[in-house]
Design a protein that fits this description.
The complex is a heterodimer of chains A (351) and B (306).
Chain A: H1 2-35, H2 40-52, H3 55-81, H4 89-106, H5 112-141, H6 145-165, H7 199-216, H8 218-228, H9 230-236, H10 241-268, H11 279-289, H12 294-318, H13 323-350
Helix pairs in contact in A: 1-13, 2-12, 3-7, 3-10, 3-11, 3-12, 4-5, 4-6, 4-10, 4-11, 5-6, 5-10, 7-8, 7-12, 8-9, 8-10, 11-12, 11-13, 12-13
Chain B: H1 2-33, H2 41-59, H3 61-85, H4 90-113, E1 128-129, H5 139-144, E2 145-146, H6 148-166, H7 168-178, H8 180-185, H9 190-217, H10 228-238, H11 243-266, H12 272-290
Antiparallel strand pairs in B: 1-2
The chains are: A mainly alpha (351), B mainly alpha (306).
Chain lengths: 351, 306
């Protein structure tokens, strides 16, 4: 019986951990809200109402916000799985958006299909190029990727500022943003009357593809081995883990780049410096909540999309500053880390 | 004569921008020498700025410096409880502390001072004019007629070098970063050493944050740390985990940042954002070109016990 119970507990562990962490986060957030003189019930009520209050709110706000988080979450997971600490999804996202926009507005005569393929390729290449500097510095000079990806985020932000204020500034010359991209480059809404666009489907397909790749193919197996135990990989003599890490890092940058372009093509239609409110950083929480599992990242992205979408409503209807949402994200990461430690200690005690 | 004036103002700006980085980076040097990389340093800087502003408002600029240092230490305590106490991943923990700190300082600031963002006016820390030294032409007023946080840096860089490389305590701390198992076998408290090192890092980063609002700007604004904590981590690498080198690297970065003022004065047509990017590009280039001969502490970012 006891063994049976243990087996059930093991099987449920991947679900139990995130649920437990979410519950702990809600409890701490409620306590902090009360401490800050807000009513937790009002705040959560407004948040849930804002995120799930109607179909249109769910599709047009929660899922629209979830889309860049889904893509950057996948990007982070691919890198982390291989043991590459890519904290640079934010910069790679901006680089991808810039590359896509630059191509789209300079090539208005292209047909829709060609432009779609070309802009996606440009965005992926832009994101990958932004990851290339940290990759080269890691493999050639042994400089850790954490610092270099962080620094590249700032370079991307200032590059975006420079481009939208200068060379790519709209032809009216009023605001610091690019011209609107041609209609042929824009992603169609999925349901008439909502803002949800085809980019969400791209994210779902990518999640499914990565899930299959990671769990069912030799390539995916190599990524997991390279991340979990590079020494075992070297000892096996079958493949070079450093090579696998490089390619995973590059793929991570490409996916983050896509996230940026999809946001422009599906939502804003233009590039401006404040395109991302920090999705590349939130993506780390998204990936961790899903325990780096590509399928679970879909759910995790929706959770964080709801936080983002509900945050605005929380500020408007309950008077709780939106900054709370970011704080809560951090609490969730810490709760996940602590719960993971707790489970590990418990399973050590069993054996 | 005008050139001398431009040069002097460049030096003054460079020193002013280098000091907060040096404060935070000197603290992080100690933490990394003990084997802990704290990306949450950015969080300590922003809490230091808010704590400094609030304590400064209540009890004057010197109390503000103390309040900032305490607030920065508190953020580092949270990081340390997880990354050292629970042995969680240092990079992820640090990222979480930074994200949370930027969020919650914003929330606290808005609920305390209102969301309208009326500019806060803080009394700044007065300069301490050192006799004789401040009379030195050019460098005197730039270096020796400044706020006390400057003198903390001047004294701390050599003192930390001496501590790390010439005392038994420093040797113990470095052994915790290089070979924690051996240090443990020799009776050194690895967890305790790492925790103290992290707290010292938070203390210094908090002081850096307080410097930002009580010396540099005279106000607080949300996200005013603006990546200074991250840059400080890069400065530690540039300075090769050696306090005098770290001070030199902070000066290099401060100079790169100050360059924008000079170049802008010289040619107003050049685009502003590119100047803002310059320090980051330069430090990437410096990391790439300069790094070869040095090595990080052996167990940096690794949990212990394994």
């Amino acid at each position: 019986m006891a063994q049976m119970g243990l087996r059930i507990a093991r099987a449920l562990q991947p679900v139990a951990q995130p649920v437990l962490a979410l519950a702990a986060t809600l409890a701490v957030a409620a306590a902090l809200l009360a401490l800050g003189g807000h009513s937790p019930a009002d705040a959560f009520g407004a948040l849930v109402q804002g995120a799930f209050g109607s179909w249109n709110r769910f599709l047009s706000f929660t899922l629209v916000q979830a889309t860049p988080l889904l893509l950057t979450g996948l990007a982070v997971a691919v890198a982390f799985r291989a043991g590459a600490w890519n904290i640079g999804a934010e910069g790679q996202l901006l680089a991808g958006a810039l590359a896509g926009v630059a191509l789209a507005i300079s090539w208005p005569e292209a047909s829709a299909l060609v432009l779609l393929a070309a802009t996606f390729a440009a965005a992926a290449a832009g994101g990958a190029a932004w990851a290339l500097v940290p990759i080269a510095m890691k493999t050639r000079m042994g400089v850790g990727e954490v610092i270099t990806t962080l620094l590249m985020n700032f370079v991307a932000l200032f590059l975006a500022q420079f481009l939208v204020q200068g060379p790519l500034r709209e032809s009216r010359g009023v605001f610091n943003m690019t011209d609107e991209i041609p209609a042929a480059a824009q992603l169609a809404p999925l349901f008439p009357g909502t803002r949800l666009h085809a980019g969400f489907l791209v994210g779902l397909l990518l999640a499914g593809g990565l899930w299959l790749y990671m769990s069912r193919t030799p390539g995916g197996f190599r990524v997991r081995v390279a991340g979990a135990s590079p020494r075992a990989a070297v000892a096996s003599g079958r493949f070079d883990p450093a090579r696998v890490v490089r390619w995973s890092f590059l793929a991570s940058g490409a996916i983050a780049g896509l996230a940026g372009w999809i946001q422009v093509a599906g939502v804003t239609g233009r590039m401006y410096e404040g395109l991302s409110p920090g999705w590349g950083y939130t993506a780390i929480a998204v990936a961790l909540l899903a325990r780096l599992h590509p399928g679970a990242i879909v759910i995790s992205a929706v959770v964080f999309g709801a936080l983002g979408a509900g945050g605005g409503a929380m500020q408007r209807d309950a008077g709780v500053p939106e900054a709370w949402v970011r704080g809560t994200e951090a609490l969730l990461i810490l709760a996940l880390l602590a719960v993971d430690r707790g489970f590990r200690a418990a399973s050590k005690g069993d054996s | 004569m005008a050139d001398v004036g431009v040069f002097a103002s460049f030096l003054a700006a460079a020193a002013g921008l280098a000091i907060p980085l040096a404060l935070a980076a000197l603290g992080e040097t100690v933490s990394e020498r003990a084997g802990v990389i704290n990306i949450g340093l950015e969080g300590s800087v922003i809490w230091g700025a808010l704590g400094g502003a609030m304590a400064g408002l209540a009890a004057g600029p010197y109390a503000g410096l103390a309040g900032g240092a305490i607030a920065g230490t508190a953020a580092a305590l949270l990081f340390g409880l997880f990354a050292v106490g629970l042995n969680t991943n240092q990079i992820i923990t640090g990222t979480a502390v930074t994200i949370g700190s930027l969020g919650f300082t914003g929330a606290v600031f808005q609920s305390r001072f209102g969301a309208t963002g009326l500019a806060l006016e803080l009394k700044t820390v007065p300069s301490w004019k050192l006799p004789l030294l401040s009379e030195v032409p050019l460098l005197g007023p730039v270096l020796f007629d400044r706020a006390p946080t400057f003198y903390v840096v001047y004294l701390l860089a050599p003192a930390l070098w001496w501590f790390l490389f010439r005392t038994r305590w420093g040797l113990a701390l470095r052994s915790v970063g290089e070979a924690p198992d051996a240090a443990h076998a020799a009776g050194i408290g690895v967890i305790r050493t790492r925790m103290l090192a992290v707290l010292f890092g938070g203390f210094m980063a908090g002081l850096a944050g307080a410097h930002l609002c009580l010396v540099h700007t005279g106000t607080f604004s949300e996200n005013m740390s603006a990546g200074k904590g991250f840059i400080a981590v890069a400065v530690v690498v540039l300075g090769r985990w050696n306090p005098p080198g770290v001070l030199a690297a902070a000066c290099f970065f401060g100079a790169a940042e100050a360059l924008q003022y000079v170049l802008q004065a010289a040619n107003a047509d050049l685009p502003y954002p590119l100047f803002l990017a310059l320090p980051y590009v330069l430090s990437l280039a410096a990391l790439a070109g300069w790094f070869g001969r040095s090595r990080a502490p052996a167990t940096l970012a690794l949990p212990w016990p394994r």
